[in-house]
Amino acid sequence: MTELRIWTARHTIRVTAPPKRVYEAVANVDRWPALVGTLNAVEHLGFDGACERVRFAKRVDGVDHDLTMVRELNPRRLRVRFRQVNVVPPVVSMGGIWLVLPKGTGSTVVIDHYYRVLDDCPVAAAGVEADLAEESTSMLAALRDAMEFHDLLGQTYR
Asked: What Gene3D superfamilies would the database entry show (predicted)?
């Protein structure tokens, strides 16, 4: 049996806020509904000492979806690894990493995704990439706005 190709996508944004504070906003999923317009609720399903399991309730195009992720938080490296537990075809598997990198007096935030699609279909992979680009760009812009301009996350960051 042939191994499916791993497709990748990277999205970045510059934020004029300290890296530690940006990381805290990324790591704290309880405040994500304020950032992600399609996200309705977050439920913590467990923590094994290294990884947390989280369920996100989303509404996309009028349809409710549940998305379960396993997340590994690394505050020392300002990194959050994630793996999606329940995928919907054409996706076969998906995971990635959030990176918060010091950049001058601010930060660069990176979301890397890796995924596999049924039959290595390039059309399906392009569709997944388009969806990731739309959602990641929106999330990163909302994160930047929350950190720089608003108190959307219920905290003061400056």
From this structure: 3.30.530.20
